[in-house]
Amino acid sequence: MPRIGVFVCWCGSNIGGVLDCPAIAQEAASFPGVVFSTEYKYVCSDPGQKLIVDAIKEHRLERVVVASCSPRLHEETFRQVLRRSGLNPYFLEMANLREHCSWVHPDTPEQAQRKAVDLVRRAAAKAARLEPLFPGKIPVVRRCLVIGGGIAGIQTALDVADAGLEVLLVEREPTIGGNMVKLDKTFPTLDCSACISTPKMVAAAQHPNIKLYTYAQVEEITGYIGNFKARIRQKARFVDHAKCTGCGTCWTKCPVSVPDDFNLGLGERGAIHIPFPQAVPNKPVIDLAHCRRSTRGKCGACAKLCPAGAIDYEQKDEFIEAEVGAIVVATGYGLFPWEKVYGEYGYGRFPDVITGLMFERMVNASGPTSGKIQRPSSGKEPRTVVFIQCVGSRDEARGKEYCSRFCCMYTAKHAHQVLEKIPGSEVYVFYIDVRTFGKGYEEFYRRVQDEGAVYIRGRVSKVYQDGSKLIVKGADTLLGEQVEIAADMVVLATGAVPAAGAADVARMIGIPQDKDGFFQEAHPKLRPVETHTGGVFLAGTCQGPKDIPDTVSQASGAAAKVCGLLLKDELETNPLVSRVNEALCTGCLACQPVCPYRAIQPVTITERLPGQPPRERVVARVNEGLCQGCGACTVACRAGAIDLKGFTNKQLLAEVDALCL
Length: 661
Prior knowledge:
34 strands; five-stranded parallel β-sheet; alpha/beta; 19 helices; Rossmann fold
């Protein structure tokens, strides 16, 4: 029986305020194999760690049990303590007394005390059967793939590239920049969005360590941390960008006129086009769905007029195979499809009902109206503008229950812009609650109120047309009165949702999604940019709604994680992975479809039995670089051939036996 030491942590009052920690330590001293047991206020502190180191040496401890908070918080901390003491770091077992006892049973301390003792007994029984585990070594490809070319992807790419590492930046649109380049000004400083984003776009395109793929998408990801393989589809642009000089002759002469999707239908563009004047790359693509040469077999004006001979109607999609060591997902966000849900606001029927992003394009100097605020129906200047908050957000019945965070502030910015650009105008904002969470945000909100914006707490029930006016009917819940406003234009603050195609990216890479479809981080506080798939990181609003400063901060955090990973010569693999006893494996492969990380593959082995000719059979084999130790395969194995290191069947059964005593 190994010599076991038990250390019970008070965690201040988190555990000690409910449980009698000295009594737990005293009872643990009687468990089989336990030769030392003690308690301390904060075992994770420097004195607490020294207590463990000294006890290991003095009492010749061979296994350690720490009864404290969640292993997700400090398991790695205590493993390093064992390493410093000369023990294998996986000779550690933790009992979670905080989340499993004191926090969930604060009103029943006697029952919580008994449960805590049982948890420590369970941990000691397992600790006696722990085996030494050793991480493996794998080489690292010093190249990073960034999926998404918005401000998060650009910032990540620049930070990683500045560290001397190669970056592949893949963006599905014809230009990088994402949603940020569609904005006019940024709150609360009201500095120009383009003045911030376009220099970064140019820097990313010109950086010697960044290979830029626009109008492209990642088709497939295989491999594991440090050694991923990516297949990128470069969609046909029908313009040879190697020849194109971006002179503009083609798109200015195109006879086709279709709604401009970059301007959300507020303007028009040709079949051959660039999204906006500052696009990067500043070279066009052809929209075959609207090109007359494609749809009618006629025209070809762009090819005739192009001085560089860059038009290539026969261009095909190309595929690029690349090896990368890390992946950063920065796919951004989309807008809640409110027009399908909130029919009472009249979208599609009333052209003067627009979204906040449409307002951004309207008020932008490079937008379809050259920065002039106009009614889409008539082109006239609106005198009364109504803003409706939380369209699709904080609405459990029809929308999303979460707050999209930045809507309150961009509505305040829009209200300011109306009052600034249209002297004598009237602005009304219907809101549920105003949330100004960032630095300088509350001051900006109060400034807009001082400028004349009228905030009305209440929802809007209906918007309908009456002559040239839009009648907005709602309620003022503070005054307890019905409100009716005759408006010239209505602007809706639509909530943020995951970008289109996010679910496909999640399945391809193996990233879990939360209930709303945003990518799930490994830990909301301690690992906010990491995922449960090793080597895959998150940046920006693909993880959840956030404003520009938070997005850029997270992007730099993801870049730091990538650099910390790729600047190593070799990586240590996680030893807490599944292993297959090939002698027991029947080759049914029931384990393969349940593995969320695609870590199990069939292999053919040659079996040689005494007195029998060799025979080939199929068995399952675990790729330890991909396996994350979730254990799903162990319960799916019909033959009982799979065990999870650190959580073997014998170890788990020992815990059950200890609890049954």
